[in-house]
Specification:
Blueprint (H helix, E strand, L loop, with lengths): L1 H30 L13 E4 L11 E2 L6 H14 L6 E3 L1
Antiparallel strand pairs: 1-2, 1-3
């Protein structure tokens, strides 16, 4: 009976240690995925420099986002709203 408890304890410790080892790896993957992380000052926004009569005046910039995907959606929506525009994502 005591051996069962020891084996269970070893299994739990191994499981917890495995999760702790993966945490830095997960942080590194998140950081490289195009999303802002704590302590980072990098942000993404959609920017359009296209000048066509009857559209926006000057350079259009979307709001700053922490992840690139949201800024890309803004750029696509802007290009749909103003046909012929070529908004891009910059950081």
């Amino acid at each position: 009976m005591r051996t069962k408890h020891i084996l269970s304890l070893i299994a739990v410790i191994t499981l917890v240690a495995g999760c702790a080892v993966d945490a830095p790896r997960a942080y590194k993957q998140q950081r490289s995925s195009g999303k802002m992380t704590r302590g980072s000052d990098v942000g993404y926004r959609a920017i359009c420099n296209t000048q066509i009569a009857g559209s926006h005046e000057g350079i259009w910039t979307g709001p700053m986002y922490g992840d690139k995907e949201r800024a890309m959606r803004d750029a696509v929506e802007h290009n749909k709203l103003y046909p012929g525009h070529a908004a891009t994502v910059e950081h």
